[in-house]
Every structure is written in C-alpha cells, then in structure tokens.
Amino acid sequence: MSARVKRRLWRVIAAIVLFVAAFVTFRAITLPQNLWYIELIVYACVYAVAAYDVLIKAFRGIFGGQVFDENLLMTIATVGAFCVREYPEAAAVMLFYQVGELFQSIAVGRSRKSISELMDIRPDTAVAIRDGERVTVSPYEVAVGEIIEVRAGERVALDGVVVKGSGSIDTAALTGESMPVSVCEGSPVLSGSINLSGVLEIEVQKEFSESTASKILDLVENAASKKAKAENFITAFAKIYTPVVVALAVLLAVVPSVITGNFGEWIHRALMFLVVSCPCALVISVPLAFFGGIGAASARGVLIKGGNYLELLGKLDAVVFDKTGTLTLGKFSVAGVYPESRRNEILSAAAIAESGSNHPIALSIVAAANDNGLNVNASDNDLNVIASDKELSVNASDNGLNVIASERSERGNPLHENITLTEIAGKGVEARADGKVILAGNAELMAERGIEFTECAQFGTLVYVAVNGEYLGVIVIADTVKEDAPQVIASLKRDGIRTVMLTGDNFQTASAVAEKVGIDEFSASLLPADKVEKLEEIIARKSAKSVVAFVGDGINDAPVLSRADVGIAMGALGSDSAIEAADVVLMHDGLGAISEAKTVAKKTMSIAAQNIAFALIVKVAVLVLSALGVTDMWLAIFADVGVTVLAVLNSVRIIAFGKKNKKGDFAKNFPKTQDKSAI
C-alpha cells in the first residue's frame, strides 16, 4: 500500500470515528436552542477532515476549466445540506464518497513502481580500446568508429559490428527470444545483449543515446503518454449529471419564486433538490462493483490494476500476443529426430559433441539423450559419459562410434575422458575422441566439411550430425507451445476478437507457432520499436470504442504493454519491468486467465449497470417529489443512503460469483498443466 493510500485510509478512519462520536453525542443530548451552532461546528470539523481535498479539487476545477466534475457535484450537494441544517447528512454523504474513493485507490494501488530492470540492460560503463590500452569509460564518451571490448558475461554497451572474436550472445532483453545468437567477425550486435562466451571486439556504429537499449527506455516512457486513458465512470457521468442538476436547482429556486414571490420556500426546495441529487449511491456502489470484480479476478490469479482496465477487458476488439514466454513456454526441447530409426545413434553422438556447452540447444540435446538412459556430464574439456544402469549400451557401430558401459562400471565412473571439444563459431561444434570425429551443427557446417546430407523441411533449429565424415541424421529443436494456447485463441475468435502475434523470432518459426495455435495474423523479426510501430498500426485501424490488448512477458515487451489500451503481463514467467508496465497481470503462465478475466469484466459491468439504473430511477422519482414539495429529508436520505446500501449489496454478488467459479468451467476448459510437446 502506497504512502498516499495509507494517508487517505487514516483520514477516513479519523473521519468515521469523529462522525460516530458526534452522531451518538447529539442523539443522546439535546442542545439548547441558542447553542445550535455547536452542532454545526462539530459536524463542520468532521466534514473538513473528510472533504478538504474534494473542496480544493472543486475550486481548482472551476478556475481550471473542468467545472462540472464529481467534486463540484459533491460540494454543492453537501453545502446545500448544511444550508438546510442537515449537518449529519452533509458529513455522512462526503464520508461515504471518501470511502468509495479509498476502495478505488486500493484497487489501483498496484501501480508501476519503476523501470529499474530496464535500466539494467543499459550498462553504466564500456571498455574502449585506445592506443592499444583498455580504458573503462562512460558509454556516452565512446565515439562512433571506436572499438570496445566485451568479455563473457558482460552486456554490450553500444550498437556495433564484431571486428574480432566469436561467440554467442543472449538477445532476450531485446527480442524476447531465449535462443542465443552465434556471432563472428562481421556480425551486427545490439546494445543490451549479453556476451555468453569468448571475447568480442566491436566497432561502435551508434552513439549511446541512439543505441537500442536507450531507445527501449525512451519507448517505455513515451508509449505510456500516448496511451488512451479510460475515463473513470463517475467523472464521465458527472460531466452530464452535474450541470443538469445544477441548472434544474437554479430554475427551481428562481422561476417559482418570481411567479409566487415566496423566495424562501423555493430556495429551500432547491437546496433539498440538491441534497437528494447527491449521487452517493453511484459513487459508492459502482466503484465497489469494480472492486468486487477485481477481487473475483484476483481469486483466479488475475491482478487488475484499476476498475477502468476491468471495464476495458469487456470491450476487447483485438488481442495481440508476444510469442516466447506467452504463447510458448520459452523452453527448448527436441521436437524430432530424423530418421527416427537411428534416433539413439544420432542423440548419442550429438550429446557427446554438445556436452561441454551451456547453450540451450546443447542442453536440450543432452536432456533428450538422458531421457534415453544416457547421462552426459562435462567439466571443461573432459567428457564423462555415465551409465544410469550397469547394462546400458549405446552403439553407433555403423559409424565407428561405440559408447559401452561395462558390467564393472559403477555409477559415476567415466567411460571416456579427455575428449576434445571445439566450437566452430556460427556453425556448430566438433568433438574428437578415440580417433573419431563427431560434428553437430547447421547445414553450413555440413557443406563446409563436404558431407552429403538431406535437407530437413521441419521448422525449428536444425542440428545435423555426422561421425567420421558420414551423415547420421538431424535433430529438430523447437520451443514448446503452451497447452491452453490453441483453446484460448479459439475462444477469443468465437467472441469476434481478432488475434495477432508480434515476435522477434524468425519468420519460419513464427509461422509454425501461428499455425499451431490458430493466430489470425503475425509479424516476425521485430525489435521493441518495431513492435510498438505494429501495435500503433493495429490501434489506428480499430474503432473509437473498441479496445486492443497486448499480452507479453519480457523486458522488450514493456514499451508495447505501456502503449496498448490494456497491457497484460505473464506474471509467473514475466520480467519485473513487464509486470510494472502492464495494467493486468496473469499470476500463472496459463492463458486461460484472459478469458476468465473477460468473463468477470462482463459480469461486473452488468452489475454496475444494474446499480446505475436502480439508483437513477429512485433518484428521479424522489427529485420530482422534492420539487413538488411532497417529500422530506428522511425520504431524501433513503433516496441516497438507502439506495446506496441496496446497491452495495448488489455489488457484493460479483465477489460471490468469483468464489463460485474459482474452480469452475474455466479450470476445465483451460488446464494449467503444460503440454510437453514442441512445435
């Protein structure tokens, strides 16, 4: 809870205590007629504690051009109550209003705290090579054309091109893709990337202020300012309701007075009219309905940062998805081995070659080999192939490769030692053991070594395997699509909602994922700025009242989450910056929560509409009666406080709805368990 919300909470508590004390006191004792002003002073103090910020905002609105808002309406109605000597009513109405505002403040209290994680992708220093010396300087001091050095584990400070060295870089902060990218001389690299291996010398091509990492930060800051803010219901309602009520009250005070000459009577009726018109039922029950809706969504693991975003969820026109970590798990696994008949041979050979690497491709291959009963561990350049069972035997005899666990081998005993592993930058890896040569890499590596191989048409990362110059087969590595993704996409499309995918991954992989989950359209190979641009195009095509949501999880998604009408972050797998930039947070990695939140939003809006209709019907009836002079203050109080109580009770139904359906149909339709198959 923020300091601001805490202050409001303590002020509301103080006002409630003072009001109760005053109400009980003045009901227990009867003041002499000449001391009537004591009650006025006491309730005025209660009123001041509860209402001082509303009064300030009302006067600021008058002079600032926003005259007819809810603050002015509350001020006029409560001051009118003081004028007709209904002091408890004046204080109570304002107190009710502040309670409603407190609920709203708590609901939106999970505000964006910072973009500290984003700042982490932009290094504070860079190592420049000047006159043969390595000098640590601020990135702002590095000029275009200078050479910077980036060692393993360090972030690239500025955009440039590799002029010396090779290795792998992690671009997840920029593209959202967890698969590292191999780089060598001539390869472009972007600031914010992490060098995973080797030492790179990079020729700087852009100043620090124009670097990719800096632009991401700028995008986050600027995107939020472009976002269309959903207007608070009461604010929108007050713009129409307040001038109408004030105009009618003035007419009621002036016109009959001129006709009858009884100014006092008709001014009193006008003041009563203003008291009755006070929209307490609306300012309490509507926010409470939204608060209940937020609670119902939270029970299903969906955090909504404000009632306005809950309202927008019920008006979705298009949902735009990131790919990795959103539609997919962001975990790579072996999707296939071809030919299947030689699966064990291919995996065994590839596992030996990849055993010395922490690259996701290597880890997935070794994991697949382990699933076949072979444990592969490597320390530096020493390879230990460990048998899980004594009788384990993995043979690739056709190609001269034999890895056999003898009966005398105990768990943990190495079968082969001192295997030489050589990384071939941008192409793969070579392993030498017992005079055998194992190659595992891309098609370029096979062609370079003159090995005849069969091109694989499968989508994903392809690892071709050869032993002693003879081709064995290919391993397909792919990300895993979330189990509930196709169901959620189908559900959204049935509701007439357009689905789009924006990803930093390549076109082929994006196409395969889009086809598997049923996405309507997609764009691939996008950097954060490109994603914002694509989202802007989608927003430009929508109607004025429709809503575009974006669902993402990574640092690179923060600008798009900020720009969308509704930003939805994957809380379980998402980065802190994505969660902070988002308006809605899914606390588990299942996409079914989007449909759940949408259902809760529609139910909440239905209850809020019921409250509005009921309150207005009663208000109009009592207003007519008060104008005719056939009502009294108690009926006015019922029209306000009584309707408020009934509306609040109706609002509570959304909380019951949330509890009732917490483990209902959604859990069945969108299971949280994940499919382990890959695309």
Account of the 3D structure:
This protein is an alpha+beta fold. Among the domains are: 123-210, Calcium-transporting ATPase, cytoplasmic transduction domain A, CATH 2.70.150.10; 331-480, Calcium-transporting ATPase, cytoplasmic domain N, CATH 3.40.1110. The chain has 23 helices and 26 strands. The strands form six sheets. A seven-stranded mixed sheet has the order 10-26-25-24-11-22-23, sandwiched between helices. A six-stranded antiparallel sheet has the order 2-1-3-9-4-7, with no helix packed on it. A six-stranded antiparallel sheet has the order 12-21-20-19-18-17. Strand 18 (428-433) and strand 19 (436-441) form a beta hairpin. The longest helix has 36 residues, at 592-627. The two termini are 43 Å apart. Residues 107-119, 223-231, 377-416 and 663-679 have low confidence and may be disordered.
Average residue pLDDT: 76
What Rg is obtained from the alpha carbons, in whole angstroms? 34 Å
Cα end-to-end separation: 43 Å
Number of helices: 23
CATH third-tier fold name of the domain at 331-480 = Calcium-transporting ATPase, cytoplasmic domain N
Described by the principal axes of the CA atoms, the overall outline is elongated
Q: At the fourth CATH level, what is the homologous superfamily of the domain at 331-480?
A: Calcium-transporting ATPase, cytoplasmic domain N
**Topology, number of strands:** 26
CATH architecture of the domain at 331-480: 3-Layer(aba) Sandwich
| Poorly predicted runs | 107-119, 223-231, 377-416, 663-679
Instruction: Name the structural class.
Output: alpha+beta
Strand proportion: 15-25%
Helix content: 40-55%
CATH top level of the domain at 331-480? Alpha Beta
Q: Main sheet?
A: 7 strands, mixed
Neighbour order of strands in the largest sheet: 10-26-25-24-11-22-23
